[in-house]
Structure formats: C-alpha cells, structure tokens
C-alpha cells in the first residue's frame, strides 16, 4: 500500500487528506483533518487572509491526518498541494516574513488599476497572452497594489530581496524551509503575468504593471519536483511532487482528461472547466482560457466559466437572512415550495462573473408575493446556481460546439443537494454525473503527486477508476426550460440596467 498526502488550502478552510494508491490506479481517501480560519474584511470589497493562518492550518491538519491514518511519516510517498487560486502574497526572502496579509481572489480593491489598464488599451494584448480578462480577480493587479502601497517594496523587489507567490508557492516556500520558490503552470496561469502560449512570465506585462521579474517563482509541471519538506516539520522529509490550483485539481480528480470533458465544482463559488486539449480556444463570450494541467512540459488547455456566488447564496440565507437553519435544509424547503410562485433570485452580491464580468452589478429578488417565504427563497437560491451554470454552458457551446457538453460532472459541497442537481439537469437539458468520491479536488492533487512520485499509472487507468454515484437525467419539457431561462435572463438584464 502506498500513501499520498493531499493538502487542499481553500478559501474558508484547509484540509489534509491521506489517500492510498494501488497499482491498478485506485486512489481512495483514508483519513481527513480540516480547520477553518478567519476571514478579514478591512474595507468594503476587501478580503484578506493572514498568511500565518494559511501556514499553521496546513501544518496542523497535515500532522492530524497522518496521525488519524495510523501511519508513519516515512510511509507517505509524496505530498500534493492544491489551493485557492489568485490569492496574492509577498514576503521577505531573508526572513520569510510576509509584508502584508494575503489579498484574496474575491478582493475588489484593484478596480481602479483595472480601469486604468483598460483605458490604456491593454485588454486585447493581455487576453491574447494570458487567456484572462482585466478584472481585480487575478493576482497581477493585486501585486501591483502591494508594490505601490508598501513603502520601499518596489525598490526591495528590484534588488531581489522579496518573493511573490500564490498560496501554493507560499506553502512550498515554508514546507521546504525557504529552499524552493516555485509554482505550477496552472497557478501561474491565474496571475495575469504568465504567457500561457509560450509558457513563461511575460516581461512586457510585468513592465506595464511595474512588477520586477526578480519577484516571480519558477514555474514547473503539475506532477513535478517541488523539493522536500523540512525534516523537523513532520518528523521526516516528504517529497512534494504534485501542485495544481483547486479548480484544475478538481478537473484532474474528475478524470476530465479528454477534450470535450466538462466538470463544475459547487463550493462558495462555481467554476466550470471544459478540457479543450492542446487547443487554446479564445472565447467570444468572455470565458477564460486557462491551463487545465501541465504534464511533461505539455500544457492541456481549458475554457473556464467562473461564478463568484454559488453555495454562498445558501450561506447568505442561513447566516445573513437567518431564514434557514442548515445548508442541507434547502433541499426539503425547495421540494415544499409553492409551485404557483415564481421567485427569481439574482445573487450578484459581489458583481457578476462570467460571462458578464460586471463587478458593479448588484443582486435582486423578483416575483415576491405576500405568501413568499423561506421555502420559495430556498428554491430560488438553488435555481440561481442552475441558471448561472446555464449561462456558462451556453457560452461554452458557442465557443467549442456542443460535443462533450452533454454530460456534466459535478462536485463540491453543494453537489450533495439532490434537488439542486435535478434542477441543474432540467435547466441545462444535460445529464449530470455525481461521482462516488466527493473530495475531487484533493483527489486530483493526490493523483498528480502519485504521478510525480512514479507510484501511479497513467491517466487512462486513473480514468477507469472514476466511479459514478448518481446520474441526474433532464425531465423538464423544452418549452418550460426555455421560458424559465428567458425569465432568468430578463432578471439579469434588469440587474445590469440598474
Ligand atoms: N446540501 C447542501 N445544499 C446546498 N448547499 C450546500 C449543501 N452543502 C453545502 N452547501 C454549500 O456549499 C458550500 C461549501 O462547499 P465546499 O465545497 O466545502 O466549499 P469551499 O471549498 O468553497 O469552502 C457552502 O457555501 C454551503 O452553503
Ligand atoms: O477555495 P475555493 O474552493 O472557494 O476556490 C476558489 C477558487 O480557486 C478561486 O479562483
């Protein structure tokens, strides 16, 4: 039996999971440890994490998972890291001390910097080279903000005294005791600084943003050599052999290895990735072009649709409005909702992501009556996630063609909700496949690490091990499907117009 440890450093919590691998390609979870950590909101639209929290939760959950698995550190063949993407850190190479809190992907503070880039006419060039759009979501403008704001930071960066990284690079730096400053191609592809066509940091873009190249980590394959952990941390050195951003790791965990295969992860937000193989498809509908994974120096590309509010709308009903007790209760409430009411909720709490990219848009509820209550709101919340996914799939079908988009593999916390998944199948007119393994993100990181350590078979065998738990078939008639979707589009248009 071989053990692989996956670290999944997410937006709200850190998980460490010990997986077992067998020569036939099976990878199974054996023990898990999870810790939440505080979110910091220093100003409206700002979201930060304390870098020390990211690091300490990784150390504690890793130790706990190894203990719970009942194994010795020496039995762990490799570590795989997967992480919340785009979140930006800057630290001192000599001391390892961060210069600022991590600026989280959701943070909107660089809207003005983005406006300036757009006004200067840089968008077409940036999109062509990076596959991204100009939006505060990505790391590049966050890093510029840090260098502009922290006194002396740019001069120190030019002298090579500082290091930038997304969360993966921050963890690799700390795990290796500051010996390795590296990231993987999928995380690099989210910075707005990386040319996904030629696979290198783009000096011209860095020049435009005033980012010294000396700050940037080395970019490696997803199943690559990222050094070994400091022996003192876990009792013995463990090789780090797999790294990928969390949505890309989920794509691997869902075994979406063939062009046309599609997965969607429903956590806080929702991120749909369509494997486009070696083809770097440029979207006509403001989807992102990104790297799904990179093996043996060869990138496999994806089209990505990013929705900022999915499970978060359920959290809002629970923690903001206080009209539901648990996320799970939305299933029973939606089943019991009045079929005669047609409440539509547009959860544009922090603007709309793909395919609209309107950070200024705000949410609304339409169709309320005196009898509307928690049941109808719960149903509208779950439906909003289905409608937003349809927005993405409509765009993907036009960019890529329908082939492959007739089955969607789902995962993430909200994928456990049967009502939401049935509505998704109905409104998309697409079969929805929910896998037996729900920890798809960590599973993907574990598989990449096993591949990097030479203890896993190739993708074809891993793909054969993917197991279905339940398939949701569309049952809604075509006329109803279209009239409901038309109503959603009118609701979005109204929000965009206000
Ligand atoms: N049964 C459920 N029905 C609806 N939403 C759910 C359910 N279970 C979890 N969620 C939502 O899913 C999210 C948690 O999923 P998770 O994959 O852990 O997210 P993340 O990794 O972004 O923290 C929360 O926003 C929660 O409201
Ligand atoms: O941490 P999650 O699961 O909410 O994922 C966040 C994404 O990587 C942001 O791009």
Radius of gyration: 22 Å
Strand content: 15-25%
Amino- and carboxy-terminal Cα gap: 59 Å
> What structural class do helix, strand and pairing data support?
alpha/beta
Q: Overall pLDDT, averaged? A: 94
Compute the number of helices. Answer: 17
What's the main sheet like?
A: 7 strands, mixed
Protein name: Glycerol kinase
Organism: Amaricoccus macauensis
Enzyme class: transferase
Catalytic activity: glycerol + ATP = sn-glycerol 3-phosphate + ADP + H(+)
Summarize the structure.
It is built from 17 helices and 22 strands. It has helices at residues 51-69, 111-119, 123-130, 139-149, 153-158, 167-175, 185-188, 203-209, 231-234, 246-253, 311-321, 329-336, 374-400, 418-428, 440-452, 459-465, 478-497; strands spanning 2-9, 13-21, 27-36, 48-49, 76-83, 89-92, 102-103, 162-165, 182-184, 194-195, 200-201, 218-220, 240-245, 262-266, 270-277, 288-295, 298-307, 344-346, 364-366, 407-411, 431-435, 468-472.
Helix/strand layout:
Elements: E1 2-9, E2 13-21, E3 27-36, E4 48-49, H1 51-69, E5 76-83, E6 89-92, E7 102-103, H2 111-119, H3 123-130, H4 139-149, H5 153-158, E8 162-165, H6 167-175, E9 182-184, H7 185-188, E10 194-195, E11 200-201, H8 203-209, E12 218-220, H9 231-234, E13 240-245, H10 246-253, E14 262-266, E15 270-277, E16 288-295, E17 298-307, H11 311-321, H12 329-336, E18 344-346, E19 364-366, H13 374-400, E20 407-411, H14 418-428, E21 431-435, H15 440-452, H16 459-465, E22 468-472, H17 478-497
Helix pairs in contact: 1-6, 10-15, 11-13, 12-13, 13-14
Bound molecules: adenosine-5'-diphosphate and SN-glycerol-3-phosphate.
